[in-house]
Structure prediction request, 315 residues.
Amino acid sequence: MGVDVHQHIWPSSFVAALRARTAPPYLDGWTLVLDGEPPYQVNPDDHDIDLRVKRNAGLDLALVSLSSPLGIEHLPPDEAWPLIDAFHTGAATLPAPFQAWASAPVTDIDSVRLAHALDAGFAGLQLPATAISDQAGLANVAPLLDELAARGLPLFVHPGPATNCVHGRASGSAGLAAPDRPSQDTPAWWPAVVPYVQQMHASWYAFQAFGRPRHPDLKVCFSLLAGLAPLHSERQINRGGTSRGQVDSGLYVETSSYGPRAIDAVIRELGIDVVVNGSDQPYAESASLDFGDAARHAIQVANPARLLSRKESPS
Prediction:
């Protein structure tokens, strides 16, 4: 038994909201249409709640989140909120072992609406890495991060749109250079391996430089081992970078899409206490954690429990 902090399910209310749209992102049946990318055939079984419950029968908790690569958080408020509300409505009714991360548009910062979602039991807030890739992006979302910190709840950072652009609007803040749009012959794995990893690098170092001084107590979990950004600390130091220390106990990384070699390298850099289990289901599976029972318990149970713990309410 244990915890998986990174999964995706599209509840029926969210599927209906995507199908009601005529501009990207939208669903035509089960064909997903995104701006600047080829149509993607979604497997309906991936979002069948009963099948996913059976698939996760061995977990105590699986946290699901909005698919940030869709670019929803960067849409204008009148487009973003209906999709986010539809996701929240469906996610709130998911059966065990599922719980959800809340979402919020970065085009309409509303800490009151976030507070209502957190009061309803959402585990924390997910934001796309494209939204916090520099000082301006972090300043924009600061009220949301303040709300999380006041409750002791975490931020989950997930890759955003692979093109870093939605309907021609920059989806990140000014500092992150937009990668080229995929060409017709770009390999299918390209977005997950190149722009997603670049986004995670930028968000990891942006939070270290600009976010941590503003939010000293905020817990943050970076997906996909922060794109292995922690392994570049020696280069950072050699180029004049400074930090609060070798390890920030409030910055966690989850393991999705990596295996034992990468996980071992990050543990050697950060220690095991900030590494948590994530799978990215239905797109990937959790890595085999062949590090012994104590390490497996830390990554799957003890560390996620510390990441997700709430502050005690004042008596």
